[in-house]
Amino acid sequence: MVAINQIIRQYAHDHKISLKKVASTMGITHQALYKLLSTPDFTLSRLHQISQALNHNFFQYYITTPANPATDPIKLQQEIDRLTTKVAHLQQEITYLKEINQLQKQKNNPIQPPHCPLLYINCHLPNTLCPLPLFFTLSPCFPAG
């Protein structure tokens, strides 16, 4: 971590504010300010005075917060990609489960022959049931004469 005295000097330099003017605003001599800025640490009240004189919050440099992954665009894109892949897999799983469910329904409700329980042999003779002729077809519910 950079010492606060260096941050203050750099801020004043970047904003073209002379340290003599800062000292005057603080009500101290410029020699006292130079001496103050020669040490890396000073009291909170002095830091507050310097913050007011430069119109900048120097206390913020003491606050450390862990990086928030929610604001990192690369991490956000990686999370979006991961979730997109997961959604695709879950949709595929839903499709498979629907197919299994449909097959289970078919197994529990087998297809019933239409209208009647037996198939009759059609002998190609009107209103006649044959035992097993040479030329026959199977037809459902052929009426017995």
Concise structural overview:
This protein is mainly alpha-helical and 145 residues long. It contains 5 helices and 2 strands. The termini are far apart.
List keywords for this structure.
145 residues; 50% helix; 2 strands
Structural class: mainly alpha
Q: In percent, how helical is the residue content?
A: 40-55%
Strand order of the largest sheet: 1-2
Order of helices and strands: HHHHHEE
Q: Strand share of the residues? A: 5-15%
The largest sheet is: 2 strands, antiparallel
Low-confidence stretches: 116-120, 132-137
**Counted beta strands:** 2
Structural Rg:
45 Å
**How far is the N terminus from the C terminus?**
106 Å
Helix count from the secondary structure assignment: 5
Apparent shape: rod-shaped
Mean pLDDT metric = 78
What report would you give on this structure?
This protein is mainly alpha-helical. It has five helices and two strands. Strands 1-2 form a two-stranded antiparallel ribbon. Helix 2 (19-26) crosses helix 3 (30-36) and helix 2 (19-26) packs across helix 4. It is rod-shaped, with a radius of gyration of 45 Å. The model is unreliable at 116-120 and 132-137 (pLDDT under 50).
